[in-house]
Amino acid sequence: MTNLFNNLSISKKLQVVNLIIISLVTLLTTISLSLFLYGSLQDNYEKYSYTLAGLLAESANSAVVFNDQKVAAEILANLNKVTDVVHAEIYDRSGKPFAGYTRSGAAFKEALNVDPVKLPLGFQFGSLSMNIVQPMLSIASNQEKIGTIWLQMNLRPAYAQLSFQVAILLLLGALGFVLVAYLLNRMHGSITQPLISLANEMRKISRDEKYAAYVSGKNRDEIGELSGVFKIMVQEITKRESSLNDELKERRSIEAKLSKMANFDAVTNLPNRHSFNNQIDRALLNFKYEHERFALFFIDLDNFKFVNDTYGHQAGDLLLSTVAERLLGTLRSVDFVARLGGDEFVVLISNHTDISQINTVAEKIISILSKPFEVEMHELFIGASIGITICPDNGETSEILQSQADSAMYQAKNLGKNNFQYYQAELLHAQEHRLKVEAQLRRALERNEIVPFYQPIMDISSKKIAGFETLVRWIKTDGTMINPDDFIPLAEELGLIIDIGSFVMKAAAVQTEAWVAKFGAMFVAVNFSSRQFKLHHLASDVMKVLEDAGLAHQYFEMEITESVLMDNTSNSMDTIQQLSQNGISISIDDFGTGYSSLSYLTSFPVSKIKIDRSFVAKLPDDKNALAVVTAILGIADSLSLKVVAEGIETEEQLECLFALGCEYGQGYYFSKPVPATKAASLLARQLEAL
Ligand code: C2E
Ligand code: MG
Ligand code: MG
Description:
Distance between the termini: 132 Å
Radius of gyration: 67 Å
Number of helices: 21
Oligomer: single chain
Number of strands: 21
Bound molecules: ligand C2E, magnesium ion
């Protein structure tokens, strides 16, 4: 009930309250007036009845005194003009009925026989008649009681009159109720209407969000005050709204910037790796539901590092954005291009996945990236290596496709750059194998699997061991022996050659010191790769090793290839100078196969050259080989360099070299590279032979 009331509008509530109040007021008024009417009726009736009884007593006084019943009866008979009287009875002094009157057709007869003294007198609530008893007094001075008059009054007419009055009252009450209700309603209207208008206006304002349009009401009462407060509130809201709008705008622009930063690459304005990952996920969903094939290109620029290192990062960035422009200009707008970072780009091509179409796209990319780039007044040539894989032919997940495109791209690089390659499963196997070998090689040194072998270098004229070349072997725990050509390039790539080189150098120095002590003077040649020359402390490292081993500097030789001498970027020149000044010999390995620029022979302190075995192998019959070997020996002679001929396998080769005046020889004809123990027994046998 309370809930029902609470849910009503204020106007309805007021109406309900008013109705209740008016009803109560009307009801109470009607009841009180009715009671008042009833009371005055009773009062008036009693007074009137007693007056009537008094008049009768006076009139009938002498009749009673003179005991004239007839006169008394006549007097009473006059009562027929007074309609209210039903019975009248006069009793004498002794209480006996003296004269009586009963209105014809009247009720209440039963009361006649009742002793009037015992009757209930006066107005009785609920009774339709009223009994009045009036003593009759003597008119003499003693006023003695001579009789009694009893009147029985009919109250029906009085009640009928009362009912009529009450009915009028009720009617007036009802009219009053309606009038008051109507007037109050009008008054409520004047209270609630401004409230309703206020509410409607607020609703409209908040719906249309036109806060500035609010005009406050003109009432001076509380509603006017409320309306004024609303105006202030609306102004406040308008202010906040506009500052919120500004804030929102700023936030949106920050969000847009953040989203751009999160999804785009700042250098090229292309989508970044994050976007690419989303895009490939979308392409995979398209494939899943629409069977839409797509091709993934991994593009790696060739020679970008060179541009960056030589011309600086700014030039590099300019180049990258030009690459992006060219890619966008070449591809269809539906194709997706992103920069993954560095010089790596990706392209996703959907719905255009025939091999011939993909070939065309790849060729186009290769062609536009091969054209010269104009960057900061430089004309730069780069190029690109592209790896391609196709969903679903090769894979159906983002990781697999990306790793496939990546390995295909490496394959393109290995095949001489500036070309494109499709992913082939074998590539992955080769890569897996490489990863396995890599992991094993990283642990090979700790596990003592790297072992130095020694191949004798003979003095050709005396046929005696003049020294050894240290040639490293990787002997795995299962006994398989891996030759350096199969792991040195990988070790160089991984940087492991530094540790391997250092280990071999130490082992060779310690070993040779022991042999020199036991078998007399001999040299040991150790191979050094160009990577080791990038170490600034190589010279001091070598000398420290020799010092620790106690090996005299003149017994130690470093074999380096021509490429080490030609590499201007490394500090090889300083290192070689320093080592040479400390009495360490430098010999040029594989002479004749490299740059064959003879100038370095004079500019570097080289003391020995080793003729590559490719020439020796063709001796003595091949005229060209013979000419090269003769020429090398001639140059060496004129520059006072010692010469070792590598790869002597036959007696004829040896004789030829001997005849040409070559001082030292090395090859299977004398001995293959052997473990230290075997090398020691070769030295021991030679000692015995003396
Ligand atoms: P290299 O320094 O030119 O070594 C000579 C290579 O010729 C050795 O191959 C040797 O076994 C091989 N050889 C010697 N005589 C004959 C012969 O009569 N016939 C034929 N067919 N081959 C002969 P190996 O031991 O396989 O080494 C290959 C290359 O690996 C070496 O060429 C050298 O460049 C590199 N290497 C070996 N050990 C090391 C090392 O400790 N450090 C570095 N950086 N490179 C090394
Ligand atoms: Mg060598
Ligand atoms: Mg060699």
